[in-house]
Amino acid sequence: MGLARIIMLAVVAASIVSMASAIAGTATYYSPIVPSSCYGFEDRGTMVAAANAALFNNRAACGDRYTVRCTGRTNLGVLEPCRNGAITVTIVDLCPGCAADQIDLSEQAFNAIADPNAGRIMIEYNRV
Fold first, then answer.
1. What Å distances lie between residue 4 and 8, 10, 17, 63, CA to CA?
2. For the chain, which has fewer Cβ within 10 Å, the N-terminal or C-terminal residue?
3. Are strands 65-73 and 86-94 parallel, antiparallel or unpaired?
């Protein structure tokens, strides 16, 4: 078996494991993104998110990165909200009102994967 074939099989296997470990949930968005619970007034860019209480785990998730992909709508407001594909965000804050399966994306991050008029979308996310 050639090296190229072994590499191809490894990539396929990694993709399958990654898809299998994705967490289904919902996303909303918020602004402004500074100050944050994790970093105060330190600018961490715009591709950031606030985690639900369980994921945030008393600041243990600060700096963790997640790949987030829109998978569908949660309401009848925007019938096809998803666009572009996956993004990677860094956890910088707590979302105290978020459900256990919810992530609150920065407005810029939400806009990168979905129409902001939707307000709330179905997602899959996993830690990078």
1. 6, 10, 20, 35
2. N
3. antiparallel
